[in-house]
Amino acid sequence: MQALHFGAGNIGRGFIGKLLADAGASLTFADVNPTVLDALNARHSYQVHVVGEQEQVDTVSDVNAVSSIGDDVVALIAEVDLITTAVGPVVLERIAPTIAKGLEKRRAAGNERPLNIIACENMVRGTTQLKGHVLNALSAEGKSWAEAHVGFVDSAVDRIVPPSESADSDPLAVTVETFSEWIVDKTQFKGALPTIAGMEPTDNLMAFVERKLFTLNTGHAITAWLGQQAGHRTIRDAILDESIRAVVKGAMEESGAVLIKRYGFEPAKHAAYIQKILGRFENPYLKDDVERVGRQPLRKLSAGDRLIKPLLGTLEYGLPHKNLVKGIAAGLRFHCDQDPQAQELAQLLAEKGPRDALAQISGLDAQSDVVNDVVACYNAQ
Description:
Strand order of the largest sheet: 5-2-1-6-7-8
Order of helices and strands: EHEHEEEHEHEHHEEEEEHHHHHHHHHH
Number of strands: 12
Number of helices: 16
Helix content: 40-55%
Shape: globular
Radius of gyration: 21 Å
Structural class: alpha/beta
Distance between the termini: 54 Å
C-alpha cells in the first residue's frame, strides 16, 4: 500500500503516520515546513516517545517527504492508494485544490484503482467537508470520475499529542500517550478496506464521533479553561484540583446522558469511559499546557462543537446541564495573547457583552434561560 499523509506535525508523525508505517505502507509526508521536510528526507525515520506507565521509544522508518504545494505531491496523488490528513480543520480547504489537481492527473493517466481519502481531524465529518472543497475544484468530468473511483471516508480520531519538549533540538521528536483511537466509516470506502492495526471500521460512526467530542473534547476544553482561571499551568495540575475535576466530570456525565439517550450506550460502560478520560488527563508523563489546549475558543464554543452541541442535546432531552454551563462561561473567560480567536473573543465581549457575544458565537437565543444561566455564571467567575 502506498500512502500519502498531509501534515507532518506532531499528530501526523506521532499518530496517523506511525500507524500507516507500522502497517507496512510506503509512506510519504506532505507539508510546508522546510525544516521538517529536510529532516525527514535526510533521515527517512524518526522516533516516537510513547509515555505512560510503560514508557517506550518506537522508531518509524522508511518514510519520505514532499512539499504540499509543489508538483511532486500532485504526481503522488495520481499514484497512491490512500491519502490521510492531519492538518487542522481550517487547512482542509487550502489543500483541496492540490488534491483536485492530483485527481485530474490520476484520471488523465487512466488510473482507476480505488483511492480512499481520510481526513483525521478534530472535527465532525471532516472528510465530507474536504470532499466538498475538492469537488468544487474539479471539472465536471473530474467530479463524475471521483464519485466512481474515490472514497471520502469520515473518521473519528483520539490521541493526546502535546508539543515535544525536545522540539527545539530535534524537529522530528514527538511524544504521545499510550491510548489511541482511529474509527472510520466503513460504508464510505471504495474497494477493499485497508488492513491497518489501530484503525477500527464501523457502520455507526456518528455515535463514536460524538462520544469522543462530548467526552474527551468537552472535558479537555473545560479543564484548560478552568485551569487557566485557577492559575494552573498544565492539564494534569488542573484536573488534580478537586473543584475543577468535579465540574469536568459533571459536564462529561451531563453530555454522556445525551449519548446514552441518543445512541443507547450502556451507562456502566460509558461511566468507565469517562474515568479512562480523566485518567488520561492525569498522565504525569504528558506536560500539556492549559493555554495550548484552551486555544480557539470561538470554534470550541460554536454550535456544532464540544460545549454547545452536548448542551443542545440536554435541552432536547430535558436533561441537567449546570456543569456544561460552567464550562461555557469559563470558555468566555479564556485569554491568550498568541491566539487570534482569543483576541477576537475579547473584542467581541468588550463590544457586545457576554450575552450577545455568546449568542453570536454559539447560535443560542440571547434571551433563552440557558444563556441567562451562562451569563450569571460568567459574571460570578
